[in-house]
Amino acid sequence: MAEKANPTRMELLKTKARIKLAKNGHNLLKQKRDALIMEFFKILKKAKDLRGELNEKMGTAYKSLSIAHAYHTTFELESIAAGLEQDLGLEVKSRNVMGVRIPEIKEAIQERGFGQRGYSVMGTSAKIDDVVEDFGEVLKLVVTLAETETAIKRLIKEIEKTKRRVNALEFVVIPRLEHQRDDIIFRLEEMERDSFVSLKVIKRRLEQEAAEKEAA
To answer: Least packed by Cβ within 10 Å: which of 82, 121, 154, 162?
Structure first.
């Protein structure tokens, strides 16, 4: 059980100030929560679109690989894959969304020009180029999807934490402070009533004593 505050005017002023501060904090946290939820749904939609695009591109890439199998042996494809060179350089930046660091990956894959892919054009066909192009696009989508998935996880964590704080202020802290304020007001009014009654009793006694002196 919470300890009762001292029923003084100063304590009443302090309690009212705490209530005001708690309500301001509650409003700010609600705004933060709403902004985070909006950002969450925006990124979630992007992630869903990316998943659909990735599934489609994966189908295209494996189709290209199947066609390449019709023109080249498995040994040839494996040899080309072993010598394939692709630079995967990640430039990771971030942006701040209501205190949450959202990752942004720029220039994830460094493109290589024709003839610089790590395999010779001699003994290969355009079907190999199609496979390389398609799986390169798949890799880009995978990196972008990883970026959005990471952002979603961070946002969910922050949303849950913010919701707990909002609920704590709304259902615990503010009601407790308001109850404390009301208790102080009630006790102050009670003390004022007691003082008023005491003053009336003292006044009546003084008047009675004065009347007795005049009568004597």
So the answer is: 82
Bridge partners (DSSP) of residue 101 are 96
Q: 4 with 183: CB under 8 angstroms?
A: yes
**3-state DSSP call for residue 2?**
coil
Q: Of the candidates 104, 108, 105, which has an alpha carbon nearest to the alpha carbon of residue 138? A: 108
Question: What are the φ and ψ backbone dihedral angles of 46, each rounded to 5 degrees?
Answer: -60, -40
What's the CATH code, domain 9-215?
1.10.287.3240
d(CA 134, CA 102): 28
CA 21 to CA 17: how far, in whole Å?
A: 6
**pLDDT tens by residue, the chain, 216 residues:** 455 778 889 999 999 999 999 999 999 999 999 999 999 999 999 999 999 999 999 999 999 999 988 888 788 777 777 766 666 667 778 888 888 888 887 654 555 544 455 555 545 677 888 888 898 889 889 888 988 999 999 999 999 999 999 999 999 999 999 999 999 999 998 888 888 888 888 888 887 877 777 776
Using an 8 Å Cβ cutoff, are 163 and 33 in contact?
yes
**CB neighbour list of residue 148: distance below 8 Å, 6 or more residues apart:** 43, 46, 47, 50
DSSP strands (E only) in the chain:
91-97, 100-106
- Euclidean distance between CA atoms 131 and 195, whole angstroms: 93
pTM over 0.90: no
Nearest alpha-carbon partner for 80 in 125, 114, 112, 137: 125
